[in-house]
Amino acid sequence: MQNTTTHTNCLRCGRTLTSAKSCATGYGPTCARKIRTSAVDLADYKPHQVQSARELIADAAITPLRSVVFLTASTDGTETYRSAPTACTCPAGLKGSHCHHQLAARLLLAA
Ligand SMILES: [Zn+2]
Ligand SMILES: [Zn+2]
């Protein structure tokens, strides 16, 4: 599922994307930088989860669905989850654990 979609508009601000890189990631350079540097409380997360969340965003494997809900792809790309900053339909999220999907949603909303 990764790298199969190209985007024509920024997933965050809706502006037309011009560079090939932006079309692949789904974010324009300004939004990509804001997302990279967005400050959220990472205390609940382990470093590998933070990395996974950032990879999820970099791979455009998380896309906005509505308001605070995002569609996310599982690591192997075979499943899709609905993820919000405090809830997720992935196996870990359903058990009430913090998952990197929730973190990615948080990072995007904080950007
Ligand atoms: Zn943008
Ligand atoms: Zn999850």
Report on the architecture of this protein.
The protein has 111 residues and is of the alpha+beta class. It has a domain of 71 residues. It is built from 5 helices and 4 strands, in the order αααββββαα. The two termini are 24 Å apart. The mean pLDDT is 91. Bound molecules: zinc ion (2 copies). The site of one zinc ion has 8 residues, from helix 2.
Secondary structure elements and pairings:
Blueprint: H1 20-25, H2 29-37, H3 47-58, E1 62-66, E2 69-73, E3 80-84, E4 87-88, H4 91-94, H5 100-110
Antiparallel strand pairs: 1-2, 2-3, 3-4
Helix pairs in contact: 3-5
The structure holds zinc ion (2 copies).
The site of one zinc ion (ZN) has 9 residues, from strand 3, helix 4 and helix 5.
Descriptors for this entry?
alpha+beta, 111 residues, binds zinc ion, globular, 5 helices, 4-stranded antiparallel β-sheet
Oligomeric form: single chain
| Chemical compounds bound to the protein | zinc ion
- How far is the first residue's CA from the last residue's CA? 24 Å
| Average pLDDT metric | 91
| Count of strand segments | 4
Helical content stands at 25-40%
The strand line-up of the biggest sheet is 1-2-3-4
Shape: globular
Largest sheet, strands/sense/barrel: 4 strands, antiparallel
**SS content category:** alpha+beta
Radius of gyration: 13 Å
Number of contiguous helices = 5
What percent of residues are in strands? 15-25%
Q: Give helix and strand order, one letter per element, not per position.
A: HHHEEEEHH
Low-confidence stretches: none
